[in-house]
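call fold(seq) -> tokens
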Amino acid sequence: MEKIKSFSQTFGLHPLTALGLFAIDWMLFGEEVATAGAGWLISLPVGVMLGIIAILIQKHAYKDKTAPAIAKGLLVGLLTAIPAPLSSFGILPLAAFGMIRALTSKPRQLSQGGQI
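ret:
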């Protein structure tokens, strides 16, 4: 079980990161279809912003170290900037690993003073 947790920590994405990538990628794809491909000018800055947000989520909520959080954020930003919705499906295995980690982590217990 410990190997699965370690693997999920290394290769997993926080579910919020994965959901954000999936939703924003599909919204941008609709915009790119409507503008006949000229919408990539919008996709690039949105990809950069989502990458920065993903780095922060991975670092603070998923408890990744800085280097893996940056690598995962760059991957998310790059996949968002690609003008096709299929790239978001490539992130689904990473989201599954993140969900495994979230479900197998121990819940925090209250201390005697009632504080976490």
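The CA atoms of residues 51 and 77 lie 4 Å apart.
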